[in-house]
Amino acid sequence: MHNNLIILAGGASSRMKKEAVLDNLSPEEIAQANERSKGLIGVGSSGRPLLDYLLLNAKKAGYKNIYIIIGEQGELFKEFYGSQNVNNDFHGLNISFAVQYIPEGRVKPFGTADALFQAVEQFTELNTQQYSVCNSDNLYSAEALLALRETTSPNAFIAYDRDALEFPSERISRFAIAKLDKNNQLLDILEKPSAEVLNDYKDVEGKIRVSMNAFKFNGSTLYAHLKNCPVHPERDEKELPTVLLNSVKENPNTTLGIPFSEHVPDLTAKEDIADVKEYLQKYYPVLDWNV
């Protein structure tokens, strides 16, 4: 099993920064939503960031080396998790920071695939190892993160049961869906699925499966696909699902969809803050690092 987890935290958080009139948020919470990276918003006990809880679950799952990809203005991460660029000790986790630089001529980062490519260029040892990747603004369970460590598949992702996600149906309908074969190998990813095609995308359990950006990759075989990732024609970004599909086309039967049926708390917009706070109060009343 591998010990490396890369956390994507260098995005622009543009949806979180959109104006919203909400009576269930304090002025301090609104200020944090407008100014901080999403994973650093203080939704937990004593105002601790969501990222604390993700790191706790990563520790429970057995990860040792954490690489947080931050933006060029990401110094606040170092106030929470260690002032050095590499090898900070945070409750027994070894935390290092990679920086996602914005290419010349752009005003915002170039997407998740670009973030991961810049990280493995800065920490080249990852290109000879296996590693997991996830978002900083989602709270994945320790069980899901462990499943990524345990799988023997070269590449994998957590294939979530769409019906188990506790989001409004309109939001869920916009999620890209994964097409798996009878052995749960990834065949295709369909963006913006219409209701008419859903039956064709059900897996062997009759479930519609979606990705919430929780992956496991083989560094040596993924590198070329990261380096050569094309730009998404609509979003003008380089994205990890594109990398994954290009890898599958070149190497079929190497990307396992690991079935999971559970909710994944998500901090995308200000409207999510109260829901995530309630979830943490219910399931994580205290942060216990003695695991």
Automatic annotation (TrEMBL):
Residues 34-239 form the Nucleotidyl transferase domain. The keyword Nucleotidyltransferase applies. It comes from the Bacteria. Keywords: Nucleotidyltransferase, Transferase. The keyword Nucleotidyltransferase applies. SUPFAM superfamilies: Nucleotide-diphospho-sugar transferases (SSF53448). GO terms for molecular function: nucleotidyltransferase activity. This is Nucleotidyltransferase.
